[in-house]
Structures are given as C-alpha cells and as structure tokens.
Amino acid sequence: MKRFAVKIAYLGSLFSGSQAQPGLYTVESAVRRDLGLVLKTEDPDLKFSSRTDKGVNSLGNTIVFYSPMEDGNVLLKALNSVSESIFYRSWCEVGEDFNVRYASRRIYRYVLFGEFDMQIVEKCCRLFEGTHDFSSFCHADGRSTTVTIDRISCIEKSKTIVLEFEARYYLWNMIRRISAAIGSAGSGKTEITEIAAALEGKRINFGTGRPDALTLIDVQYDFLEFAGADPRGFSGRRDENARDAYLKL
Q1: How far apart are CA 210 and CA 171, in angstroms?
Q2: Which domain holds residue 10?
C-alpha cells in the first residue's frame, strides 16, 4: 500500500460543504465514493487538509489516503474517470509521518462585486496583514483567535476586487468576514478606524461575505512536489459547468 497526497478541485455549489454529514452530498462523501469504486476499499484512511463550507470552491484542497495502486498517474486517471463532481488535479507520494493539516501555506481568493475606493481597500489589506486577534472576524470554535496573515493582495478588475490571502491557517469564516469588512470600508459604509478598533479588541460585526465568492486556490507544502493530471480526461458528469471550470485551471 502506498500513501498519496492528492490535490482536488470542485465547485462549492454542488456540495453541502466538505465534511461528511448524514443524508447530505458533501465533498468527502463524493471522494469516498470515487475511492471506493477505484480502490475497492471501505476505509482508505482519508484525511483533508482544509475544511470548506457550503458554497465555497476549491482549486487545491488536499487529501491523503492509502492506495493499493502504485502509479499515481494511473490512480488519478482512474479517479477522474469515475468522478461525478471532483477533479483530482495532482498527486505526490508521502510517508507515514506526513500530516496533511501541517501545510506551509494556504492561499485563498475572494471576489468583491461592486465599485470600491481602491486606496481604502489597499489600506484595509495592510491593516489585516501580520499577527492579530481576529476574534471579531471569525466564528469562535474554541481555538486561539490570534493568527498571522502573511499577505493580502488586491487587484481591481471591471467592477470587482480580487483579494488574495496567504497564511498557514485560518479560523472558521475568517476570510469571509475580513472580506466583508474590506468591502464595507471600500464602499464607504464603514470607517477604517472601526476596523482598526475591531482588531484591537472592540466587538464589531461587519457581516459575513457570500460563500460562492471564496475559493481555496492552493494548499502548499514546501517539501513536496506534485505531479499534475490532464483535465481533458475529466468528464465531470454531474455538471458540465464544473468540467468547464476545471479546464480553466
């Protein structure tokens, strides 16, 4: 048995989130179905690098599992041939000590729709970079709310702002809440001083951005090198739009 790390892409609109939930179609249930068909095993010891909420897209979420198939290229071709809604993008063989949760960085992209003051947006991005207490910008789940964001970039594209975040990890709803705050300030609804106050501990709720505007771009491991798959071999039978999206990778 070999242990593989595999990067997967999917449209969030097709799933009720990534984690398995009774009676719901999730990313995990879809992956387990595909693995069962290809590997003929009930428990491949499947683990995910990141959780995505209902509606959130992925171009590079990473899973790890055991496989009796030893050729990674053949494995991905087989998985993509049976998959209804997941594109298995790339693979890498990993050792027993590899923990898929311990990534070097996670890169997310959020798209704001509308007209914004780019100078204000840029100032907001710089405010959120670095180490802060993000208690006003997350859904508390018992973890420490102090997180370091290494980079936030912003690009204006025809009445949209594309925000890109880079950090080792994030808190639940963190990016969607930060993006909502940036959008509110950029559109003149919120003062930057309010955002600064929230980062200093003042409890302010700026709302939560829509999930379909968020995409997990990549989960990166500096010590691994992934081999890619050819998206032209993916059928995407559940939704033709899913296949079209994957072909743009």
Answers
A1: 16
A2: 2-102+221-242
Residue appearing with tokens 């995505």 = 52
**Mind listing the pLDDT tens digit for each residue in 190-199?**
999 999 999 9
CA distances from 191 to 40, 69, 86, 163, 194 (A): 57, 56, 41, 19, 5
Number of domains in the chain: 2
Q: Say what the pTM is.
A: 0.91
Whether residue 150 sits in one domain with residue 134: yes
> Which of 53, 71, 133, 222 is an active site residue?
53
Alpha carbon distance 164, 33 (integer Å): 32
- The answer on 50 and 22 residing in a single domain is yes
CATH assignment at residue 25: 3.30.70.580
* Distance in angstroms (rounded) separating the CA atoms of residues 55 and 29: 16
**43 noted as active-site residue:** no
Helix axes of 27-39 and 72-82: crossing angle, nearest 10 degrees? 120
> Is the pLDDT at 242 greater than 60, yes or no?
no
Whether residue 58 sits in one domain with residue 9: yes
Query: Phi and psi dihedrals of 238, rounded to 5?
Result: -70, -35
In angstroms, the first-to-last Cα distance of the chain is 30
Opening angle at CA 111, ends 110 and 112, nearest 5: 120
Cβ atoms of 207 and 52 within 8 Å: the answer is no
Region 231-236 average pLDDT: 57
Q: What digits encode the pLDDT tens for the residues 168-188?
A: 999 999 999 999 999 999 999
